[in-house]
Amino acid sequence: MKNNLHIPSAQKHLLYLVVALLFTAQPIAAKTQQLPPWDTFVSQFIETYFKTHPDFAANAGRHEFDGKLPDWSIAGLTKEKQWLDLQHDLVSQYPESSLKETERFERQYLLAVIDENMFWLHSAQAPFKNPMYYAHSLDPNVYISRPYAPIEQRLKAFIDYAGNIPKATEQIRTNLKLPLPHTYIDVGKKVFGGFAKFYEVDVKANFANVKDEQLQKQFNTVVPIAAKAMRELADWMESQRKTATDDYAMGTPRFQEMLKATEGIDLSLSALEKAGRDDLERNLAALREACSHYAPEPSVQDCVKKAEAKKPPEGAVAAAQRQLITLKAFITEKKLVTIPGSEEAMVAESPPYNRWNSAYIDIPGPYEQGLPSTYYVAPPDPSWSPKEQAAYIPSKGSCGRTPKSVRSELSLLSFSEGDCIGCWDYFLLVRSMCRTASSNVNELPASDA
Question: Which end of the chain has fewer CB atoms < 10 Å from its terminal CB, N or C?
Answer without folding.
Answer: N
